[in-house]
Amino acid sequence: MSAEIIWATLDTALVKVADSTTGATVGKVVGVARIQARVGNLRSNPLSVRVQTPADSLQRGATVRDTVHYAASDSLSDSLVVRLFATPPDAPNLLGRRVTFSAVTYPAAAPAVTFQPNDTVLTAASNGVGLAVTQVRMRTGQPPDSAVVTAVARRASGAAVPGSPVTFVVEFRP
Questions:
Q1: 3-state class (DSSP) for residue 34
Q2: Order of strands, edge to edge, in the sheet holding 166-173?
Q3: pLDDT at residue number 71
Q4: How far apart are CA 68 and CA 75, in angstroms?
Q5: First-to-final CA distance of the chain
Q6: What are the structural domain ranges in the chain?
Q7: Of 2, 95, 111, nearest to 55 (Cα)?
Q8: How many CB atoms lie within 10 A of CB 35?
Q9: Res. 6: pLDDT tops 70
């Protein structure tokens, strides 16, 4: 026997349940809202849902191109920085947004590069924007000539934030 689960909001000023059978919600105001599931008279514990400001755009920081000298003791690039914006500027709600970095090396047969700290970075809040920062490190082996790095931020719907992808070029030299 199956039972129908019905979803409802406990904070009607913050969030609206768009479909009570799937639990799909629409945020009204930035903040933390609670929703709850029920079957007959049985109710779940409230679940918290964070309503965030939609991201408007993604832009790169100052560094567009970097040269890494692999004869040095470490092959770590300068910081590759992207800035996530929202209107109105709302840094606290741009905190913890996911930005994914990827790289293609040239020539393609060259060893791949790694990202420090990671290829997926969560934004930190600073002066009304969300900042995501990573660096590229060359793996051992025959060095590539360069790596083209792209950064993409996505909205909750899966759509790319306008300005995505942001592109960087890291050259490798002796």
A1: strand
A2: 65-69, 166-173, 146-153, 98-106, 120-122
A3: 66
A4: 6
A5: 69
A6: 6-51, 57-173
A7: 95
A8: 18
A9: yes
Give DSSP secondary structure letters for 90-159.
Answer: -GGGGTT-EEEEEEEEESTTSPPEEEES-SEEE-EEETTEEEEEEEEEEPSSSPPSEEEEEEEEB-TTSP
Average pLDDT over residues 31-58: 91
Element (H, E) at 166: strand 166-173
pLDDT at 37 over 70: yes
Specify which residues 19 forms β-bridges with: 24
The CA R_g of the chain, rounded to the nearest whole Å, is 21
Class level of CATH domain 57-173: mainly beta
Round to whole Å and give the CA distance between 19 and 78. Answer: 47
The pLDDT value given to residue 172: 87
- Could you tell me the CA-to-CA distances from 11 to 29, 38, 59, 64 in Å, in that order? 10, 16, 34, 44
- Residue 7 structure tokens: 């979803």
| Residues of the chain above pLDDT 90, percent | 49
DSSP 46: P
Q: Over 70: is that where the pLDDT of 72 sits?
A: no
State pTM to two decimals.
0.77
